[in-house]
Amino acid sequence: MDLMGDGYPLMSRNEPCPDIIILDTAQLTYRYYKGETMDLNKYFNKYFIETGVYFESLINKYSYYDYRVDNHWLAVPLSADFRVLKFNMKTFDRCREEGYDLHYPPWTWDKVFEYADIIHKCTGKPGLKVLHNYNE
């Protein structure tokens, strides 16, 4: 197997095709332009006719740019990505020693943003930085 190839065949003779194929979102546009995807718009429209609910409205917030190409829905998100929250303990401790009201985790997201603001006041530098994954 080369790095750009498939690890195993998607389907073979005498075996049923899979119901679901999980692709990284980066593959969708590539596969769309190779004609290897199916437009899901008709299924979303059918769902609306049957339920009165726009399926797109349920997933737009999370997937609009990742799962649409040329105004065609190509996929539905089945998994979620998460990031690990890290913090600089030395900076945190220094700000605590200077009298700032900071406490170690567990934190809520509201507390993360509050502490980022406090750390900015303490250090004069951004208190929060979002790091990307190696493949983004």
Notes on the protein architecture:
- The chain is mainly alpha-helical.
- It has 2 domains: about 1-80, no CATH class; about 80-135, no CATH class.
- The protein contains 5 helices and 2 strands, in the order αααββαα.
- It has a two-stranded antiparallel sheet.
- Strand 1 and strand 2 form a beta hairpin.
- The longest helix is centred in the last third of the chain and has 15 residues, at about 110-125.
- The protein is elongated and about 65 Å long.
- The relative contact order is 0.09.
Cα-based radius of gyration, to the nearest Å = 22 Å
Domain count: the total is 2
Distance between the termini: 23 Å
Approximate strand percentage: under 5%
Q: Which structural class fits the helix and strand makeup?
A: mainly alpha
- H/E order of the elements? HHHEEHH
The counted number of beta strands is: 2
Percent helix, as a range, is: 40-55%
Oligomer: single chain
Principal-axis shape equals: elongated
Instruction: Report the major sheet.
Output: 2 strands, antiparallel
Spatial order of strands in the largest sheet: 1-2
| SS field, number of helical segments | 5
- Model regions low in confidence, pLDDT < 50 over at least 5 residues: none
Mean pLDDT, nearest integer?
77
Indicate the topology.
Blueprint: H1 25-33, H2 41-51, H3 55-67, E1 68-69, E2 72-73, H4 89-97, H5 109-123
Antiparallel strand pairs: 1-2
